[in-house]
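Loading example: each entry is read as two labelled lines plus one structure line.
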Amino acid sequence: MNKIQLLVAILFLSFSAQAQRNPVVVSPEVHPNHSVTFRFSAKNAKQVSLEAQFLKDKLPMQKDASGVWSVTVDPVKPDIYPYCFWVDDTQVTDPNNTVVFANERFKYSLVDIPGDTPLIHSLQNVPHGKISYRYYNSKTLGTTRPLVIYTPPGFNVNGKTKYPVLYLIHGGSDTEETWTKVGKANLIADNLIAQGKAKPMIIVMPYGNVRPKSMPEFTPDVMNDVIPFVEANYPVLTDSPNRAIAGFSVGGGQTLNIGLTNTDKFAYVCAYAPYPETEEFRKNFSNYAPDAEKMNKQLKLFTLSVGTEDFLFESVKKNIAMFKEKGLKPVSYIVDGGHTWMNCKQYLATTLPQLFK
Amino acid sequence: MNKIQLLVAILFLSFSAQAQRNPVVVSPEVHPNHSVTFRFSAKNAKQVSLEAQFLKDKLPMQKDASGVWSVTVDPVKPDIYPYCFWVDDTQVTDPNNTVVFANERFKYSLVDIPGDTPLIHSLQNVPHGKISYRYYNSKTLGTTRPLVIYTPPGFNVNGKTKYPVLYLIHGGSDTEETWTKVGKANLIADNLIAQGKAKPMIIVMPYGNVRPKSMPEFTPDVMNDVIPFVEANYPVLTDSPNRAIAGFSVGGGQTLNIGLTNTDKFAYVCAYAPYPETEEFRKNFSNYAPDAEKMNKQLKLFTLSVGTEDFLFESVKKNIAMFKEKGLKPVSYIVDGGHTWMNCKQYLATTLPQLFK
């Protein structure tokens, strides 16, 4: 920004209706060595601290003479992390950061610490697919619902290609935007496709929250409304080896509920840190008696992923053992880390190359 | 939510890593008579108040025994309004409301107060267009940039239709998402097309902030990068009577800068509360000497819109007079209200039916 622009910006801000705006500070400021400075303007606060998913504990921030609180953290492993500020007892997102975690229950900002070489979720100079925001009518739920759909680079250019489809479900209080806004599913797919590691595919990201209806209603919504909408409106392959389902947390539980009761329709079922404490999960898997021989023929890939620090680590291990005991062949993908979207991106990046092959 | 679901939700929340989450409260709660209750949980705050664009002044909230602050406001004229809470001296969005204003400079939540009959921006049971998130390479700016594109219902179904295009620019600190997330441009277009009032069209919403480059670089970015990208990737009509440009605030200024210097390319130029305090605007219009006769033949529609309480009201009136004095024929659209996205939606809804006819 040159001086004239700065002056114009200041004039504009002072003209503006939001008379109470705080001064502009740069936050977060990511340094070349992967350390990060966070800043927050709060003249009258007694204490301000930083909460971030790369920190074990909240970090106190220091106030300067102008009322701007700041802290610089040691170099952080490159990734995208949720963070927020605690101002006295109040949790706030970073007002100077545009990027907010798409969620119905909490508000975090996101800080993107780029790698020295590009990470798999980074925006790279490769052909880009497209994310579309659609509406569909759900007969199951009696309402118009949102749907986010990724189509790969070069989609439908010749009007002849038909694509396999991954149905990808978000976590418990997330929204249909979380897989792209936080999980960068589109960029992960763009990069893996550009590297020749993943097949061009359509990724459908439905909205998993069906309130005020009850959670098990999501299964018929996917089967009877979402899939028919996609298959009527996109050039897709409709046989089971070209249909996959995956999801995180509550969406991982929904993935198991939907996928394992429909193995004639999904040859790929990938549960990321699946959350089991739901009515539907207990109904499906408490006294589970699958036709394992048949299912093992139908399933080309069945994975359960989890981090060793995930609060669901023991639960996922127990379920892996249970599925094995019932004769199924789950592949377990166990990594470091917790119940986070940093891990979730890894799970997706590991899954995509294994689909539709 | 039934009791089992509630119990599961509570269990899940208590398991979760975000141990410091406040209790779930319903906020905002819009009542049938258009009054609204806002709630915020803050046990230790000394005072909490509501700021909202339907209020002249902040409204104090009252704390109950559980530490939840609330206030119920009198019936409000149905519309979508930005609001926030002030917790002691700290401005926060509503943690229980998913919908956040897409902006780089401030953080507001949005409350949607539906009309007794559907408003023009509401989600109705009509055919819906699609919003696509794209990337394009800007040679002008030397970077990959985001672009949001609306395609109308039934787009490209027969593979033969070519569409007119409206280029629609956001306000000063907004993002490429603000026209859809806050301005509901897609739903306004869906509804007007369903009513037969607007022609099916493509609406291209570029990202107007070109920092660290200087603001006038946006003009060549639109002309040499955005438009060629759209015309290479979408079935569009490329003659001037099928190309329009419109924008709000800083984007209204950019609209005048781009549109009036390229009347051979845009037959429709619609400025919504245009902000004139920029270098480029002064360069173009301080000693303005247009070939009015030629331009009046080229321009099928040239409008300036503003609200009587807009901080730019006098400025827009002055510019309308200036353009008239220079022999151009601006249509002025002057309504109640301020420099807000409530007004901005009105301006768009008034413009769309007049385009490409």
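Chain B is about 25% helix and 25% strand.
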